[in-house]
Structure formats: C-alpha cells, structure tokens
Design goal:
The structure holds 2 protein chains of 2 kinds.
Chain A (H helix, E strand, L loop, with lengths): L11 E13 L2 E9 L10 E6 L9 E4 L2 E4 L3 E9 L3 H7 L6 E8 L11 E7 L3 H13 L8 E7 L8 H7 L2 E6 L6 E2 L2 H8 L8 E6 L2 H11 L5 E5 L15 E5 L5 E5 L6 E3 L9
Parallel strand pairs in A: 8-9, 8-12, 9-10, 10-11, 12-13
Antiparallel strand pairs in A: 1-2, 1-7, 2-6, 3-4, 3-7, 5-6, 13-16, 14-15
Chain B lengths: L9 E3 L2 E3 L3 E3 L22 E2 L16 E4 L2 E4 L8 H12 L6 E5 L4 H13 L5 E5 L16 H14 L4 E4 L7 H10 L4 E4 L3 E4 L1 E2 L4 E2 L5 E5 L4 H12 L6 E4 L5 H10 L3 E4 L2 H4 L3 H15 L20
Parallel strand pairs in B: 3-16, 4-7, 7-8, 8-9, 9-10, 10-15, 15-16
Antiparallel strand pairs in B: 1-2, 5-6, 6-14, 11-14, 12-13
Helix pairs in contact in B: 2-3, 3-4, 4-5, 5-6, 6-8
The chains are: A alpha/beta, B alpha/beta.
Chain lengths: 281, 312
C-alpha cells in the first residue's frame, strides 16, 4: 500500500506583483515575487496564472516564463505577455501589490545542444518570451558564448516587437524584421532566416522557434526534407495545465508514424517541428 | 484506537468511502496526473477518465473555451481504451487505499457490455459508472441517456456483466431527468450520479464562428450548480437509490448544499482544473464545518433538507 508520500506535494503558489508595466502597446511585463519553494523553471516551461481568490476569469491562463531569478529567501518570475482576450486584459490591469495564484512551473522544456556551433532562435511577436528564457539560460547556466546565439525576431509591426532590449544583451546578432517595415527589415521572419540558411551546417546547428502557427508552418515547409534539428513551442487554450482536462490538444505524429492528439501542457509545449501535423486546422 | 470525530465515512450501497468527496470523470485523468498534488489515499474515491472499448482520438482543437462562471469542453472522450487502462494505468492505482471507479461508455449496447466485462475481471476496480450521455451510433446518434427506455437498456446490459456496484451518470439534457432515474433504478442500477455537463455553445464575435471546433460542447463549473441542485432534488423525490451530486462544486459549502439535499456523496470536477488541491480543501472544509457545528457524523447532515422553502 502506498501509505505516505515521501516527497512534498506540489501546489499552487501565491505571488505578489512587484511590477506590471505596459512595455509597449498591448504588451505587459509582469514581475511576480514568489516564495523560495517555487521550483526553478527550465526554458520552455510555463505557469498557469490567475487573480488570487477570484473566480472571474474562471480559468488560469497559461503564460510562458520570460525570466527567472532566485534569491535566498524568495524568487522573482517575469512574464511578458500580450493582451489577447478577457483573461490577459484582467492580468494587464493588476497593480503592484496585487496577489496572483501561480501554478507551475509546468510542461516540458527545450532540449539543449551546447556543442552545436549555431544556436538559432526564430520568434514571431510574443513568441520571443519563452525563447528569451532559453537564451538567458544558455548564457548564464550553460555559459555559451554570445557569438553562438543568433536571434531572428519578427512581428507584424514595430509595436509588436517584444523583448528586444533583453535579447540584445544576450545574443550576438539579432535580425529584426516587421511585415510593414516599421522596424528592421520589411520581410517575414522566415524569409530573413531563409536567406541565411545555407550559412548554417545542419549537424552544427539547432533551431528553436515560437510564434504564430502560420510562421511555424512556413518554417516547417522551409526545413522539410533537411536534417536540421528544430524544436517549436506551441500555444493552445488550456483549462488545467496538468494533463487532466485534455483541452490543449495538438495533432502529433509519434516515432512509429501514428498520429494522435497530444497534450500541449504535458507532452509539450515543446515539440520537434517534424512531429507536428501542421495542416489540421 | 479511539473513534475519530467527526465521522466522515459514507456508504453508497456496498461501496464504502472514507469521506463523501470523489473526483469527477474526465477531470482527474487516471489519478497519476494529480498524484503529485494530492494524497490519493485521502480521497473518497477516484473516478477515472471515461473508458471505451477501443482507444479514441478525440475531437480536433480548439476543445475548450471559458464562459462566465465555467467552461465548455468538446474533448470528444479521448481515451486510451479499456485494455490499455488495465495494463498501463490500473497498476499505478492498485497500491493506493482508495476505491477506483471506472467510468465507461460505448456507442452500441455491445460495446458497453464488453467494456464492463473487461473491468469486472480486472482487479482494482471497485465500481463502474456508466456514462449514458454518449451518442448511440445505431440510433442515428441520439444519446442513450436521452430516453428512459434506452437508458434502462444500457443499465441492464452492464448489470448482467458485472457484480461490481453500477452507478449510472445521468445527463441533464433531457426534459424529465427523474423519469430517466426511475427507469434506471428499475433496470438494476445501484446508484446514480448527476449531473453530466449541460450542452452549450459560444460564439467568437471576431471570427463570427463557434469558439469550439466541434461547435457545441459541455458546460461545467459553478455556472451549472443551481441546475444540478434542482435536478438532484427532483431525482431524490422519485428514487430510493443513493445519489452522488455533481455540478460546479468548488468549495465545502457547495458540497454541503448537495449533501443537505440528500446526496450521499459528491464529485468534484472542473474545480480540479483551477485548483489541483480542490478535493483536499473541500474535505478539510467539510470536517471543519462538522466540528464547528458539533456534528459527530457527516451522515447526520445528509438529507437534512427542510422542505417548505426559506421564509427570508
């Protein structure tokens, strides 16, 4: 009989908002102070966040972790998010001192390949957030040289380019582009990356991507038939974040070729780009 | 050992529970998903995700959408199938000191029969809960639970296959839920659980299309609690079977409402999504309530409802 559970049970943490600032139109940077017992996240992981003690909005919102700092008696979690609906609108309105329920860190993480010469990041809009934590992690914990990391950051327009200030400190080269040319090159991020593709030998390169589905789909097309290693972080509506509700389904092909719906929260959010079925919607 | 007060154990027929708080099917995975959050031994029972004869892929996304005070889901009963459940998931649950209730469904009578037979023979399942909200493919997709005759027919067939207690989970998407309850009681059910989700939908104003790929989904969460209470009350007046109350229970107070009406136990569903400790919080809250009111046994609360309505 399983009588006692040896390890401590996981739970939901109450965090206090230290800062919640609109860094640019519809984009907020929220800093939350959490108890030291909050586990350090791995890059690619997310939290479910909701206003503490309130049932409106009813469900937590899955938000990827943008930055994390551990101090002796507490830790600080940073979330960079875009206002897209009711939940994020309410989160955006929270002032300093407000309490939030934070459940996490949740989900899987990016696999890292420190021996590879070219670490490529491709982000569309707010997709820069989880990749920033990855860049930070590779820089700080793995001590990769800045020169190995190249970032392609695209967005529809200038005001949707997120997290550029932090990334400029972490990466050697950042290619910025916008659909309308208001910042950086006027091109799609996948087009900019395509021009550089042959500079990167497949076996010496790893690609990490996060962004709108159309962008990831275009990237998949670009890389299909090649040997590039590419991991993507997916987004989907979630109710629980722990694998129980089966709400966050993504069609994934497993190693045997069988297609099934996997949970973005548990089997993901990071998947190999070749395993994702991109034509399901 | 001295008797511990308050006494929290309840009985649903021959099924003995440490306390009246169970998990609702489809909201607690196969138990494993929450084992890191909750000491499973402390639950009244675990009702696992609905099982079909063969694995089911489920519906394409988006499958869920939040609504005021709740959520809609159209997961499409994605599950690993009864055989894989017995092989892969049941061994994890067996060592725990908690009754495991397998929720089952089929698209034909024969499928219900076969799933029941598999689970009857597998060690480690203490009861079956029949989901009768599933569409009957041979009857043009009409839900088995939508009419009394079919609901009774499913119950009878499962009954024939097993000695385990049979709980029938009723759908609220009917004109007269008590009539279904009566039919199911006559067909040999040991207990009833209600309610399943209410059929609903939500429209995205930006795209002018349904928020769910499946268009319609099942509404759950606190929004449905008043409907659930009304139905539990109606059913209790017509049947003598033990009833398990389900629908929008977030707190101990919510659970008490069902218990006062006469439900022997409750199931906590959507609350697990927003608070993985919800079941533990509710059990602690019930215990606290009993202590505070100097009630030694939770069974003294069950069915303590005063007919006649409030005068205030």
């Amino acid at each position: 009989m399983v009588k006692a559970i040896s390890k401590q049970l996981k739970g939901v943490f109450i965090g206090e908002i230290r800062q919640n600032r609109e860094v640019q139109q519809d984009h907020f940077l929220m800093k939350v102070v959490l108890p030291a017992s909050f586990a350090s996240p791995y890059p690619g992981q997310f939290v479910m966040i909701k206003v503490a003690g309130l049932n409106e909005p009813f469900l937590g919102r899955p938000i990827s972790i943008y930055s994390f700092r551990r101090k002796k008696t507490f830790c600080t979690l940073e979330l960079l998010f875009r206002v897209v609906g009711k939940g994020t609108e309410i989160l955006a309105g929270l002032i300093e001192g407000s309490q939030v329920e934070i459940h996490g860190p949740l989900g899987g993480c990016f696999a890292i390949y420190p021996e590879r010469e070219n670490i490529i990041f491709i982000a569309g809009g707010i997709g820069a957030a989880p990749l920033s934590l990855l860049a930070e992690y590779l820089c700080r914990e793995v001590c990769l040289p800045k020169s190995a990391m190249i970032f392609y950051l695209g967005a529809q327009t200038k005001t949707a380019v997120a997290g550029l200030d932090k990334l400029s400190k972490l990466c050697y080269r950042i290619h910025v582009c916008t659909d309308d040319g208001t910042l950086g090159e006027k091109a799609l991020v996948t087009q900019v990356f395509q021009k550089d593709l042959k500079k990167y030998a497949p076996d010496k390169t790893v690609i990490y991507a996060c962004g709108p589905r159309a962008m990831l789909k275009a990237l998949h097309k670009l890389l299909s038939g090649t040997r590039y290693l590419c991991q993507v972080s997916l987004e989907e509506r979630m109710a629980c974040g722990t694998g129980a509700c089966m709400g966050c389904a993504a069609a994934i092909r497993d190693k045997t070729g069988k297609v099934s719906y996997q949970r973005v929260c548990s089997e993901g959010p990071v998947f190999d780009i070749q395993q994702v079925i991109w034509d399901d919607k | 050992m001295p008797q511990q007060y308050p006494h929290m154990a309840v009985e649903i027929g021959k099924l003995k529970l440490k306390n009246p708080v169970m998990t609702a099917s489809g909201t607690f995975g196969y138990g494993e998903e929450y084992a890191e959050y909750v000491d499973l031994n402390k639950l009244g029972a675990i009702v696992v995700k609905g099982l079909s004869l063969k694995p089911r892929l489920g519906n394409p996304p988006p499958r869920i959408i939040e609504t005021t005070g709740g959520m809609l889901n159209a997961v499409g009963l994605q599950n690993i199938g009864v055989e894989e459940f017995i092989e892969e998931k049941l061994p994890f649950l067996r060592p725990y000191d908690v009754p495991v209730i397998a929720n089952i469904y089929g698209e034909t009578y024969e499928e219900y029969r076969k799933v029941a037979r598999h689970l009857n023979d597998a060690k480690g399942v203490q009861a079956l809960e029949i989901n009768i909200s599933c569409p009957n493919v041979k009857k043009g997709g009409l839900s088995f639970g939508a009419d009394a005759k079919n609901a009774a027919a499913v119950t009878r067939r499962v009954r024939e296959e097993t000695d385990l207690p049979v709980i029938v989970k009723l759908t609220p998407n009917v004109t007269d839920i008590a009539a279904i309850a009566v039919a199911v009681e006559k067909a040999g059910a040991d207990a009833l659980s209600l309610i399943n989700t209410l059929a609903g939908m939500s429209v995205d104003v930006k795209t002018k299309s349904a928020c769910l790929k499946n268009i319609t989904g099942g509404l759950s969460g606190p929004a449905i609690k008043p409907v659930a209470l009304r139905m539990v009350w109606q059913v209790l007046q017509r049947v003598s079977l033990p009833v398990i109350g389900i629908g929008g229970i977030l707190t101990a107070n919510d659970a008490l409402e069902f218990l006062i009406l006469g439900a022997k136990a409750v199931q906590v569903g959507t609350a697990n999504f927003i608070n993985p400790h919800a079941t533990m919080d509710i059990i602690a809250g019930l215990r606290h309530y009993l202590k505070l009111n100097k009630i030694k046994d939770i069974n003294n609360i069950i069915g303590s409802f005063q007919e006649g309505g409030s005068s205030c």
